[in-house]
Amino acid sequence: MRKAHDIEEGRSEAARCTIAPVPCIGGEYRSYRGIAQPFPAHSHEHYVVGLVTQGARRLVWNDQPHLLEPGDLFVFNPGDVHGCQQQGSGLLAFESLTFSADFAEGIHLRGPRTRSADAVALFRAVIDNLNAAGETVEGSETRASGAVPAKTSDRKANVPASPETRRPASMEAVRKSALALLSFLAETDSPDADAAGTPAAAGSVLGPTATPILDDPAGRTFRHLAGNLANPSRLHQIAQRETLSDAALIRAYRRRFRITPMQHLASLRIERACKLLADGMEPAAVAAETGFADQAHLTREFKRREGLTPGSYRRQLVAAGECSKGDGTSPARKDGVS
Length: 338
Known about the structure:
One of its GO terms (molecular function) is sequence-specific DNA binding. By secondary structure, the protein is of the alpha+beta class. The protein has 10 helices and 12 strands. It has a 6-stranded antiparallel β-sheet. It starts with 15 loop residues before the first strand and ends in a 19-residue tail after the last helix.
């Protein structure tokens, strides 16, 4: 398989994305290769830590520009708004891990990027422990387009392991190494607050890391969107209820969440779609459940943000079967791991 530290240049490679559930951290392992597409501004309700192994990207993180290059570790907290586009001719490749907010128990990670050799080594240790645990195995790699998998003789990659191949003792090593990584990346002090008294990454509104949703136009708009994914009010209707113009509501929302209401709605819908697809729901039903016009609409928006089709995402996670169930999680702590 391709190791996390195989940092190289690449210019012509079919886009591929491989996903495996990692239940002991409440998240997923992902491997992307040959990626040229831009990713629009979006946010997640989980933590993301990943290593760029190929290509350069111009990243915008919470309205701040950054350059990601091979060897960079990128770090996103829940709610961090991020998007990126290709910089130069090299195609993007990276490996990443997601961690649930429950697993990390409210810590705030230093982001959005670091070249710390210690941080990279800790990230690699988690990947190595995953391989040792049998959480990922050698096998065919799924193309990001959701088309026919590549021949195993051409290329090897991680795919979800069957339950009998997983080694429980080694999964404890995965959990401990993940806690060590998060502990190393954790802020020692609370993040700076803005004028409104909310954390600098004020999009963190989901899970234990949540910023309290104030009873103001931005907060009420968020609650409405999150609670009505399938049939939200139109923006001008929400603005009228708040006695604001559309533009004023968008400005207020961006000040709070660093993303527009409609961009945030799309992110919330995709997050929900991921959960439903992982549970085995068919894409057409997911589209209806999450407010997309049809399956084609879901597919376009899903691929824009996730880099693969909903059908491919579902197939990979459903194929993992019981690998995605039955493991407990343990909270990360700022003062070390145990």
